[in-house]
Amino acid sequence: YRSKARGRGSYTLFTPDMVESHKRKLHLANGIEQGLLNDEFVVYYQVKVSNEGEVVGVEALIRWEHPEFGLVMPNEFIPIAEQGGKITAITRWIIKQVCIDMPDLKQWALTPFRASINLSGHDLRSNQLFDYIYNTFNLYDINPENVEFEVTESAYLENFALSNKFFRRISNMGCAIALDDFGTGYSSLSYLTQINIDTLKVDRQFVTELQTSERSRLVTGAIIDLAKRLSLSVCAEGIENHEQWDYLREHGCDNVQGFLFSKPIPLSALVRSPCRYDASAMA
Ligand code: C2E
Ligand code: MG
Ligand code: MG
Ligand code: MG
């Protein structure tokens, strides 16, 4: 790209698209704190469904209703928040918001019920997050058994010792812990013998490939098998059709999550939606 503005013979490594996306990134990075103060962030909830079709929990998934850009998705702004040191503020905001929503969630849901919150690797490195969770649960009268924390295996392994310490305390308090996007990292499996988790979440990639790839079917079956042998529960994400659900159920997957049941939706819509799905009627 030849930049006219900078004079003849001057070249830059940036294309107009790159400049635009860099501007957007900066704009998002600089707007996080004010956005939190202005209530621009919202929690959407996506149901998790048991083999019997009962809603056993929801995953809290954050969105940003940006005044200029409209709805911005977490895959875009979470990495920006992590890079800019703003993720802790976002994590605290969503924990508090789930606490605020908990009475409505519990009233709507069947028991037992868990609301899941995603944590980023950066969260686990701060010593203060546990205290924040503990104090916020007290303040909002939250039973820790109604909460689960999800962390990706790569985030967990970024600092293994600190993660272990953090999640041991979380687990002792009564919260559940799920290893998110399992099978997509580059890690060896040996760490599984040393960590304290309750659930493996099979990544959407495997589910998506169930119908097209025999190998994905085999790997998915093996992941479920591995989890069972370790006495962990298994949740699969990204279920979009009945064939995928059938395969997963037949192979012992405990819970599923995906557009087949519901997309992530705001609390007001969630509490008007079913908390039980008829497995046979969905085909
Ligand atoms: P995740 O934790 O693996 O969440 C699952 C993602 O898969 C969600 O995307 C969800 O909307 C999407 N999904 C669920 N079922 C289906 C399906 O059937 N089909 C398709 N195509 N997609 C499905 P979302 O909400 O855009 O979130 C993306 C990622 O952003 C999350 O992946 C999580 O890693 C991160 N994230 C979301 N909220 C938070 C948060 O509050 N804190 C942190 N640290 N990360 C978050
Ligand atoms: Mg998750
Ligand atoms: Mg996931
Ligand atoms: Mg995922």
Automatic annotation (TrEMBL):
The chain holds residues 407 to 689 of 689 of the full protein. The lineage of its organism: Bacteria, Pseudomonadati, Pseudomonadota, Gammaproteobacteria, Alteromonadales. It comes from Alteromonas mediterranea (strain DSM 17117 / CIP 110805 / LMG 28347 / Deep ecotype). This is Diguanylate cyclase. Residues 25-278 form the EAL domain.
